[in-house]
Design goal:
This protein has about 220 residues and is α/β, with parallel strands linked by helices. The protein is built from 9 helices and 6 strands, in the order H-E-H-H-E-H-E-H-H-E-E-H-H-E-H.
Length: about 220
């Protein structure tokens, strides 16, 4: 496996990557952005058209909703690190193929190792599946897994993981918008120490926690 000593080397490698066919039609690879000592990391699926044009993650319509959700819990976009599982845009914004994810995983793995975040928020099924399978845990789909805080061992690091829906899903289906913002309230509670963290073997929903608090 290729090793990288510094962020600049890693980002340069991503921008020039030809590990899978997605590089053939890209305008820009999208490494990610945010403080290199950020304690909160957001992981999405793949760049869209606007991201491909600008070389930045989550700058289209879904990105605006993500920024709004981040700000709703008292944070700024500049406080967190944002990236995707796959760094180049798949054609027609389709889901990345397993072989594309596998080829690109080297970069996300290194980003996590360099950043060592305290909290990872996965946005959608692709990111949630990647993180859970990488930590040798079962992924049952975002709607079944969201609403909980999981403590996982991810490549040797203990990290709190909060799965939620992808902001794009909330754009296509406005009824999902409240789910997104509810999950961000959970993120705020974790940051403020107002909720418990559960291991995967003892994971409980936020509703369970609230019931226990009232009893």
């Amino acid at each position: 496996m290729v090793q990288y000593d510094v962020w600049t080397e890693l980002e340069a490698e991503i921008k020039n990557c030809k590990r899978c066919p997605l590089h053939r039609n890209r305008k820009n690879a999208v490494p990610g952005e945010g403080p290199r000592d950020a304690k909160i990391m957001f992981i999405g699926e793949a760049p869209g058209a606007t991201e491909d044009e600008m070389g930045r993650p989550f700058v289209g319509a879904a990105g605006k909703l993500l920024t709004l959700a981040i700000e709703s819990i008292g944070l700024k976009r500049e406080d967190v690190y944002i990236t995707n599982v796959v760094k180049c845009r798949p054609p027609e914004n389709r889901e990345p193929l397993p072989e594309e994810i596998e080829a690109c995983s080297i970069y996300l793995e290194k980003q996590i190792k360099l950043l060592q975040p305290a909290i990872i928020i996965t946005l959608g099924n692709v990111a949630g599946k990647w993180v859970f399978e990488k930590s040798h845990n079962k992924w049952n789909g975002v709607m079944k897994m969201r609403g909980r805080v999981y403590e996982l061992n991810l490549m040797g690091y203990e990290v709190k993981v909060i799965p939620t829906i992808h902001p794009a899903a909330a754009l296509y289906n406005p009824r999902l918008r409240s789910i997104l913002f509810t999950d961000f309230t959970l993120i705020k509670n974790v940051l403020e120490g107002a909720t418990q963290i559960y291991s995967t073997s003892k994971a409980r929903s936020l509703l369970d926690y609230i019931k226990n608090r009232r009893s």
